[in-house]
UniProtKB/TrEMBL annotation:
<dbReference type="InterPro" id="IPR050553">
    <property type="entry name" value="Thioredoxin_ResA/DsbE_sf"/>
</dbReference>
<dbReference type="Pfam" id="PF13905">
    <property type="entry name" value="Thioredoxin_8"/>
</dbReference>
<keyword id="KW-1015">Disulfide bond</keyword>
<keyword id="KW-0676">Redox-active center</keyword>
<dbReference type="InterPro" id="IPR036249">
    <property type="entry name" value="Thioredoxin-like_sf"/>
</dbReference>
<dbReference type="GO" id="GO:0016853">
    <property type="term" value="F:isomerase activity"/>
</dbReference>
<dbReference type="InterPro" id="IPR013766">
    <property type="entry name" value="Thioredoxin_domain"/>
</dbReference>
<dbReference type="InterPro" id="IPR012336">
    <property type="entry name" value="Thioredoxin-like_fold"/>
</dbReference>
<keyword id="KW-0201">Cytochrome c-type biogenesis</keyword>
<dbReference type="GO" id="GO:0017004">
    <property type="term" value="P:cytochrome complex assembly"/>
</dbReference>
<protein>
    <submittedName>
        <fullName>Thiol-disulfide isomerase or thioredoxin</fullName>
    </submittedName>
</protein>
<keyword id="KW-0413">Isomerase</keyword>
<feature type="domain" description="Thioredoxin">
    <location>
        <begin position="27"/>
        <end position="171"/>
    </location>
</feature>
<dbReference type="GO" id="GO:0030313">
    <property type="term" value="C:cell envelope"/>
</dbReference>
């Protein structure tokens, strides 16, 4: 009886805590999503639009992660490998750490300080994350040279569609 109860508890818990594939693949961003504010490592405010503008003309991989996220930490070596194998594109790391202190500690602890990092001060629920249907991390998106979404939904840096999308955009 105990095993059966444990099975049902884990099943119910598991259903509420897994990635749900978005119903539609978006190819662009809303005005509200682009206006979303983040902070860089120095505490300077920047919008998603400003981040994309800095990378105009380049292929960008957005990597949503947090230092408290076990799945993110398991994916980190493969994410670093993806970055190493694609030195000609830009990687932008968007942190969902719960506090500025947590963000700073995660960057230090996981050797991310030499990367382009931003933190969602507003937390998980905000105009950008709501627009991109962010319901779990890690999550990866590929943005093309014109700041359009080329690959909307990937949950692993090993997803072959990420590399295929990058390769296609660089042709």
């Amino acid at each position: 009886m105990r095993k059966l109860l444990l099975f049902f508890t884990l099943s119910i818990f598991g259903l509420g805590c897994s990635q749900k594939v978005p119903q539609a693949n978006k190819t662009g961003f809303s005005k509200e999503a682009l206006a979303q504010k983040l902070e860089d490592e120095e505490g300077k405010t920047i919008t998603i639009q400003q981040i994309l503008d800095q990378h105009k003309g380049k292929v960008v991989v957005l990597d949503f992660w947090a230092g408290w996220c076990r799945d993110c930490l398991k994916a980190l070596p493969k994410a670093k490998e993806l970055e190493e194998n694609n030195k000609n594109i830009d990687f932008v790391f968007l942190s969902l750490d719960r506090s500025k202190e947590g963000f700073e500690k995660s960057l230090e602890r996981f050797e991310m300080k030499d990367k382009e990092n931003y933190w969602f001060v507003s937390g998980w629920k905000n105009d950008f994350n709501n627009y991109v249907d962010l319901n779990w991390i890690p999550r990866y998106m590929v943005i093309d040279q014109k700041s359009a979404i080329a690959k909307y939904y990937a949950i692993s840096p090993e997803d072959p569609e990420i590399q295929a999308t990058i390769d296609k955009l660089l042709k």
